[in-house]
């Protein structure tokens, strides 16, 4: 029993460490990811000499804005111990749908909301399958993935160029701050991260997400709104995929139905590397952001090397493996107590 | 008994009927609860206790009857509804969230907010206040999983107090607590009672029921047997109300177990210096034919760890195991099974029973695994084995095609025992085989263990209930702090002797 441990004696380092681990154990994987990111960046600088420049670091955000947005949505879903495999296909579908609508003269103020709603609806569909038809998240989102990819081909089989100035502005407008670059897409991604972090940390909805991931049965018995929260998590993930579709369209200047194949896996990898447990209940949006940057750094380093981009996947794969093993160790350690 | 009509009941359940497919789980049960009382709900497993509680807490909807809370008729369709009406439940397996902080677990869903944002300072301040009302002072920002089950239970009770509950249901709250933790819990319960909270207490421990309860309601087979003041209900009468038959059963078992064991030959299994760093200090254990060796010790004393090492479920890093005199390698459970050692785990849900298979399938699983998958145990052979063991252990209902998850805990345990016995082991290790099961099933299992040992089977029996260990065992191994501290001959030892053996060592350790 530790009921009587509140006596205030001057604290040694030992007690502080112990208190930290008893309070903030779930931050440890995030710090690990941050450590890896810093190590990668420093190693890149040591090797290439021109790696740690504002230009390279800025492009880390700008080139991966869509991935960052996807990762935020995915974090919500994985925190509930679910998974959403559809995000890559939803990105492709909303992007090609948006491109087609723009090419047919629909105003951009209509197109963007439609893209977001399209993503949200697919998220809702997946959530309903999971919640009311008791389908495994893996299978339900696989169905969502096929549906979205099919819809993308239905809209167009080939690439559609986007010439709408507002969309292109999102990517091409560069705010230059002391040699650092920031595009509107980057701003959007950072806002999504901030919103995601605030919602998860400071709203009852956000805390219920964690509760469901901790133990869904308990959350239900504690009287928390489990059904509503889970549905909303998938809707948020779908909406993020729609928004990523907008950002990706701006980034590519076109919509293409084969876009985003395998992106869902990159997203999941980034989230996991960022310290979110696949078993749910533990993880942070900020961690996912670090995960995306780790992914981006590896990609940049490999293009600096002039090597095949397939090495990105291999490195990410290896890193993911390490992280999953580390997570297993952490989980089995804490359950042994 | 005369009902005290002066106090209006906070909960009045009248004629509650609940049907499950093929079963009448509750048949017109009346139950009333007064503010400021501790009301024990007693009955064998399958008697309808949990069903009645679930009807009250909104998990099940009722097919007949009515529920009044504070004089108003109510029908709850979710636990949230029941909580809103002031009825909270603390379940046996503490249903909280290990991944969140203590404070959050207390306040979740009721967090104070400022400008739409959760006010974390307020959350922890309020949580600390609710906890300290129960005499608990802990760091509310620490993770729930870093605390003991006992403390988690108190956290669950604090949570109930946040919603200002008028009714608190404690479903088997003490089954994984040690003595001092139970005392602390009871202190809290008495305090809440004095503040006017009505408490429903479900437990299989008769001592605890008498220690804490004001009134006792007994259910049997889904029907109400009666409600009495605890002081007016002698223990024997309570047991016979629960069982529907008077039992001198335990006395018989005790008498049957009190026999001499021949320890002159080679032990069936002999472990020497068996240990694992950080888990168990090297310990010796011999078990002879026809002997029941009890292992006594508190939770975490190393009793489960010892048998897990012996069985190869965990890997020993020191010591050796001999079966009938010859040293063998027991690195995995498979090796142990080859040497005809059987192990029934304390966690029958996670490590034993397979809920989605039928009783018959669960029973033949052990033989099947021993035989290999190519030689299927089929047809009439299966039927013979299954009906033999179901009858021998008294599995109820006696339907081999029933899914195991639909059986009561006691009957699941019998099925598990049957599975191991069907493999004809020479040593069977039973880790907490009677935890969380009712008195009737407990007596059945104890009787069976005694019979098997009399027929020559070697048994290692672990239980938190020292009475049970003393009753069944011929020799008692006492463990403490991951260490074997001694052996007692059960013939001239009482529960007090065992307690003294554990406690004596404790004093020594402190000094």
From TrEMBL, chain A:
Q: What is its main location?
A: membrane
UniProt-listed Pfam families: BPD_transp_2
User: What's one GO MF term for it?
Assistant: transmembrane transporter activity
Please give the superkingdom of this protein's source. Bacteria
Coiled coil is among the record's keywords: no
CDD domains, A to Z: TM_PBP1_transp_AraH_like (cd06579)
TM segments? 26-48, 68-96, 108-132, 138-160, 180-200, 231-251, 271-298, 310-331
Subcellular localization is given as:
Cell membrane
* Keyword terms: Cell membrane, Membrane, Transmembrane, Transmembrane helix
**One GO cellular component, as annotated:** plasma membrane
Could you tell me the membrane topology recorded for this protein? Multi-pass membrane protein
Q: What is this protein called?
A: ABC transporter permease
Automatic annotation (TrEMBL), chain B:
A GO cellular component annotation here is: plasma membrane
Determine the domain of life of the protein's source.
Bacteria
The record's section on InterPro entries has: AAA+_ATPase, ABC_carbohydrate_import_ATPase, ABC_transporter-like_ATP-bd, ABC_transporter-like_CS, P-loop_NTPase
The molecular function GO annotations come to: ATP binding; ATP hydrolysis activity
Q: How does it sit in the membrane?
A: Peripheral membrane protein
Q: Which residues form the ABC transporter domain?
A: 11-246, 248-506
The UniProt entry, under SUPFAM superfamilies, shows:
P-loop containing nucleoside triphosphate hydrolases
Q: Which PROSITE patterns match?
A: ABC_TRANSPORTER_1, ABC_TRANSPORTER_2
Location relative to the cell: Cell membrane
Keyword entries, A-Z: ATP-binding, Cell membrane, Membrane, Nucleotide-binding, Repeat, Translocase, Transport
CDD domains, A to Z: ABC_Carb_Monos_I, ABC_Carb_Monos_II
**Primary residence:** membrane
* Protein name in the entry: Sugar ABC transporter ATP-binding protein
The organism named in the record is Pseudolysinimonas yzui
Query: Taxonomically, what lineage is the organism?
Result: Bacteria, Bacillati, Actinomycetota, Actinomycetes, Micrococcales
